[in-house]
Amino acid sequence: MTDHHSNTDIGEKNQEYYQRLKRRVIDYARSKAGKVGEKVAEYLLLLPDMFLLLVRLSLDPRVASTEKKILALAVLYIISPLDFLPEAAFGPLGLSDDVVLALYVLNRMINNVPREVVLEHWSGDRDLFETVRSGLAVADRFVSRRVLERINRLLGRR
């Protein structure tokens, strides 16, 4: 397998955002104790690597333009201060809507982009496919139906 992502320039702004996001999530995770804090932190810590994967896939010439549009929307949503749960109001917990959107978009990519292409760009420590599967199961239990409907509309599903 080629280490394609090392050759994919994600851009200085995206790299800076990735590093800032990762630092914020790690600081938040360290500040929380107990099982709930650990569980929340576990999912929030996935966001920087999922963000990086979304950006890398959006730059890969092997990814179809229709998928790149979805990826671009997801990246823009994650970096936008306008969220369902704004970070300014909710702190790092405000990143949870970003995590849910990233999980749904990555699930779409797993189903519409060759798996080896997706895996080439994944730099997370956990198994990507299991992470997406288990994350979606949690999201389906805890995220409101209204938010899930908006995500599905964004992704072009009914």
Structure description:
With 158 residues, the protein is mainly alpha-helical. The protein has one domain. It contains nine helices and no strands. Helix 1 runs antiparallel to helix 2, helix 3 packs across helix 6 and helix 4 runs antiparallel to helix 6. The longest helix has 20 residues. It is globular and about 40 Å long. The protein starts with 11 loop residues before the first helix and ends with a helix. The N terminus is likely disordered.
Task: Give a topology summary.
Blueprint (H helix, E strand, L loop, with lengths): L11 H20 L2 H11 L1 H14 L5 H15 L7 H4 L5 H17 L2 H7 L6 H15 L2 H10 L4
Helix pairs in contact: 1-2, 1-3, 3-4, 3-6, 4-6, 6-8
The residue ranges in which pLDDT falls below 50 over 5 or more consecutive positions are 1-7
The average pLDDT is 80
**DSSP helical segment count:** 9
Number of domains: 1
Distance from N terminus to C terminus (CA atoms, Å) equals: 36 Å
- Globally, the shape reads globular
How big is the Rg? Answer: 15 Å
Strand content: under 5%
Indicate the structural class.
mainly alpha
Order of helices and strands: HHHHHHHHH
Percent in helix: over 70%
Largest sheet entry? none
Total DSSP E strands: 0
